[in-house]
TrEMBL record:
It comes from marine sediment metagenome. This is Uncharacterized protein. InterPro entries: ParB/Sulfiredoxin_sf. The lineage of its organism: unclassified sequences, metagenomes, ecological metagenomes.
Amino acid sequence: MRETSQMKTITIELNKIKPNPFKKFIKNGKLDEEIISKLMEGYKQTTFHMNLKARENKKKEVELVYGHHRLEAAIRVFGKTHEIKIDVYSLKEFSDEKMLLDMIRENLTQRGEYYRDMADCVMLAKRCGDSALPKVFLLIHLIS
C-alpha cells in the first residue's frame, strides 16, 4: 500500500529558507560567485526559476534540499523579503540521508568538481550513517 506524500506548498520569504544542513561541509558552505553572477543575469532578464525543494526540520524551519546558488542569486536580485512558493516535505520523507543524497545528486549534474573528492563524499555520508556510503559511491559512479 502506497503512502501519500506529506508535501505541502507554502509561500515564504527567501531569507527564511535555511541551507541544507550538509551544505556547510562542502567548501565550508561557500558559494561560487561566478555561478551566482550568471544566475543573477538570467533572473534580471527573465524571472527566478524556482526549481527548489525543501523539508521542514524539527524546529519547523524550512531547509533547502538543493539550489543554494539559485536562492542566493534570487535574494540579490529580488531582495530578502521576496516571497516564493516552495514545495516542503516532512522529515519522514526527507531524512538527513535523503537530504545529503539529493544535494549530491543535484550538484554532481550541475557542478561536479565540488563533489568529486571522495574524502568529502565519504565524510558527508558518514554523518548520515554507514547506510549512506554505498549510495553515495553509486551516485558518483553513475554520474561521473
